[in-house]
């Protein structure tokens, strides 16, 4: 343990008073204020203060306790500057930049404990680097910072629904090699998207309307079966068949049209 500058401890005392500077229990008893992130910061900084108290490093007990009190009051305490501890190591500078970048996102709201621990452990890492004579403590602090920062993440935005169009030969529900490849792309896309898969099946206008309705149903069934064979759960697939209604390309009755003989697979269509 190094001896911290007397002015540092004196400033802490001046800010909080000698009775509260090192009184962790008084900080712990403060009424909750702010949000889950500030309260998680309070806990994280109190843990660092308790560690320093066991080390009898009273200057850093005061510092971490002040950070905890700021958080307990509902404010996010600023991350300490490297210069305040006489540090300039590139690894610390990069770590601080990465932390500030993450804290500027929605990560603190999404993963408050992880972000709070990352912030407190970063400052502990700084403190250990300042002391500079306990490599195991430095390694632990950096390791904890890295681990918590990896968990400090903003919410993952759901991918937009994706459409895959499967075309069929005339008067057929048989899947061509091209169709199977497109279905495989849809099955792969399902792995990265939440929600359901919808199938909308159609025919062209050639032939009898009732026959075309049944043909569109067969086409939907063929695509569903292929998706299931590729690992997509049957329960997430919903199919609708429209026969020769809702053509992609408007035509008169009795017209063969490749673009209208289709099943559209929509992946990520909703919860």
Characterization of the model:
With 271 residues, the chain is an alpha+beta fold. The protein has two domains: 146 residues, no CATH class; 106 residues, 2-Layer Sandwich (60s Ribosomal Protein L30, Chain: A), CATH 3.30.1330. The protein has eleven helices and four strands. Strands 1-4-2-3 form a four-stranded mixed sheet. It starts with 5 loop residues before the first helix and ends with a strand. The N terminus is likely disordered.
Amount of beta strand: 5-15%
Largest sheet: 4 strands, mixed
Lateral arrangement of strands in the main beta sheet? 1-4-2-3
Supply the number of helical segments.
11
Radius of gyration: 31 Å
Write down the secondary-structure element order: HHHHHHHHHEHEHEE
Note the gap between the termini: 55 Å
Average pLDDT works out at 91
Helix/strand structural class: alpha+beta
InterPro entries: Bact_OuterMem_StrucFunc, OMP_bac, OmpA-like, OmpA-like_sf
Protein name: OmpA family protein
Subcellular location: Cell outer membrane
Main location: membrane
């Amino acid at each position: 343990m190094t001896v911290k500058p007397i002015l540092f401890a004196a400033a802490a005392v001046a800010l909080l008073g000698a009775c509260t500077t090192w009184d962790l229990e008084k900080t712990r008893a403060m009424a909750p204020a702010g949000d889950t992130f500030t309260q998680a910061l309070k806990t994280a900084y109190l843990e660092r203060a308790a560690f320093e108290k066991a080390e009898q490093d009273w200057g850093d007990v005061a510092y971490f306790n002040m950070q905890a009190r700021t958080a307990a009051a509902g404010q996010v305490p600023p991350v300490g500057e490297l210069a305040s501890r006489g540090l300039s190591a590139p690894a610390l500078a990069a770590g601080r930049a990465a932390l500030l970048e993450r804290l500027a996102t929605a990560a603190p709201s999404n993963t408050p404990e992880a972000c709070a621990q990352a912030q407190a452990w970063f400052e502990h890492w700084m403190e250990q680097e300042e002391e500079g004579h306990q490599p195991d403590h430095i390694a632990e602090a950096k390791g904890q910072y890295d681990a918590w920062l990896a968990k400090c993440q903003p919410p993952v935005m759901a991918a937009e629904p994706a459409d895959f169009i499967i075309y069929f030969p005339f008067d057929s529900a048989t899947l061509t090699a091209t169709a199977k490849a497109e279905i495989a792309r849809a099955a792969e896309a399902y792995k990265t998207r939440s929600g359901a898969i919808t199938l909308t099946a159609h025919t062209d206008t050639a032939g009898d309307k009732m026959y075309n309705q049944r043909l569109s149903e067969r086409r939907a069934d063929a695509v569903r079966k292929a998706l299931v064979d590729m690992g997509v759960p049957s329960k997430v697939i919903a199919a609708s068949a429209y026969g020769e209604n809702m053509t992609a390309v408007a035509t008169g009755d009795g017209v063969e049209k490749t673009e209208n003989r289709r099943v559209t697979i929509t992946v990520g269509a909703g919860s």
